[in-house]
Design goal:
Radius of gyration: 22 Å
Strand order of the largest sheet: 1-7-6-5-4-2-3
Number of helices: 16
Largest sheet: 7 strands, mixed
Bound molecules: pyridoxal-5'-phosphate
Distance between the termini: 52 Å
CATH class of the largest domain: Alpha Beta
CATH superfamily of the largest domain: Type I PLP-dependent aspartate aminotransferase-like (Major domain)
């Protein structure tokens, strides 16, 4: 299917019904699969034959949707997980363990930051956080002999920095490690990080991919481009026999295109079990079918909202990469030529209390701890996700007290702007 355009692949990749078969692929709502002999089952356990035996490892519905996301990103293998958090964790834990080190952009989703800086640190994996706009020299200085990966977000949540993916890929490769990109906000419709040198892509499919705020999920896609076998000492888990899997060496048995995802599936998913339900994967697929239509509308609406806010006398500042004066405008034109995402952040004059009054006045937009779905939603981090912090601590975290994160939906933009207008009038 890869010769089709992305809009076609959003509908067709991963599933081609045979004669008389259902047009929509079935939800295989079964934990387990029946076999005639123990011998056949044994071959599956030894990875000598491919087939399904237990949904924690693989399920046909999940695999169909994973294959679609794989095609959308232009990868060689993909897996679905029960959350974006699980995807971020597996993507690194698959190649790094206690005693290892990872370089990460400092502007990443707060939950990912906590996972890296607190939970994974407790597991013995150290992270060095770098300013995404640092120089190549500063970036290179962050590497250590035990560095195993570099991590960043195409468009960071919530500060909306646009990552210079090529700069991060060059640094990662010159130190013999892969670049992992969380492509949640851009989606493959607006940016395909593999085309800029990234090696692995992760997603919180909870966001635009699902698009309707129906279910939490994650995905990991491998480009198949990173040659683990050039650094067998760095990546022994992929290049030497896995005793927990009958001595299989993943790079030998599954090649560069399949080793990373196979290991993450048969080892991490086997042991940690963050599998999404087939029902949720089916719902995710419905979202994927309309992803290009929704992304275009999100971006057009967000652009109009950002331009409206920029001119409003009660608005102190607006951050959206589609605005010509924005710090990331040129970089977004390079990496995101068709638009960035639907999330706009801005400050209301009058600080924290003005932001709270403005939010209370909104009638169409819902106050929600979510972004990137079809209905416009809004969050004031200083009084919700970051409410334990005082103004000084907020500044250190890059979250201004007046920052409003506005996730522009796909409603008629006239109604979204009218809602903003009446809420700002009340400030
Ligand atoms: N990555 C990004 C960019 C996110 O915005 C989020 C959640 O907001 C996550 C990862 C975590 O995803 P989930 O909430 O699906 O676990």
């Amino acid at each position: 299917m890869s010769h089709y355009q992305i809009g076609t692949n959003c509908l067709h990749a991963g599933y081609r019904p045979g004669n008389g078969e259902p047009r929509n692929f079935p939800i295989v709502q079964s934990t387990t699969f029946r076999y005639e002999t123990s011998e056949e089952m044994g071959k599956l356990f030894d990875l000598e034959a491919s087939g399904y035996f237990y949904t924690r490892l693989q399920n046909p519905t999940n695999d169909t949707v994973a294959a679609k996301i794989c095609a959308l990103e232009g990868g060689t293998a993909a897996m679905l997980l029960s959350s974006g958090q699980a995807a971020s964790f597996y993507s690194i834990f698959n190649i790094a363990s206690c005693g290892d080190h990872v370089v990460s952009s400092s502007t990443i989703y707060g939950g990912t930051y906590n996972l890296f800086a607190v939970t994974m640190k407790r597991m013995g994996i150290e992270f060095t956080f770098v300013d995404p706009d640092c120089t190549a020299e500063e970036l290179n200085a962050a590497f250590r002999p035990n560095t195993k990966a570099v991590f960043g977000e195409t468009i960071a949540n919530p500060v909306l920095t646009v990552l210079d993916i090529e700069k991060f890929a060059d640094a990662a490769h010159s130190h013999g490690v892969p670049l992992i990109i969380d492509n949640t906000f851009a989606t493959p419709v607006n940016c395909r990080p593999f085309e800029w040198g990234a090696d692995i892509v992760t997603h919180s499919t909870t966001k635009y991919m699902d698009g309707h705020a129906l279910q939490v999920g994650g995905a990991i896609v491998d480009s198949g481009n990173f040659d683990w076998t050039r650094y067998p000492d760095k990546f022994p888990g992929l290049c030497t026999p896995d005793e927990s899997y009958h001595g299989v060496t993943y790079t030998e048995r599954f090649g560069l295109g399949g080793a990373y995802i196979t290991k993450a599936t048969v080892q991490l998913m086997r042991d940690l079990g963050s599998i999404p339900s087939p029902q949720n994967c089916f719902l995710l697929n419905i979202g994927l079918e309309t992803l290009p239509l929704r992304m275009a509308k999100h971006c057009a609406n967000a652009q109009a909202v950002a331009e409206y806010l920029e001119k409003h006398p009660k608005v102190a500042w607006v951050n959206y990469a589609g605005l010509p004066g924005n710090k990331y405008y040129e970089r977004a034109r390079k990496y995101l030529p068709n638009g960035s995402c639907g999330v706009v952040s801005f400050g209301v004059k009058g600080g924290r209390s003005a932001a709270e009054t403005f939010m209370a006045g909104l009638k169409l937009a819902s106050i929600a701890t979510h972004v990137a779905d079809a209905k416009t939603c809004v969050l004031h981090p200083a009084s919700s996700t970051h409410r334990q912090m005082n103004d000084e601590e907020l500044a250190a975290a890059g979250v201004a007290p007046d920052l409003v994160r506005f996730s522009v939906g796909i409603e008629d933009v006239k109604d979204i702007i009218a809602d903003l207008e009446q809420a700002l009038a009340g400030v």
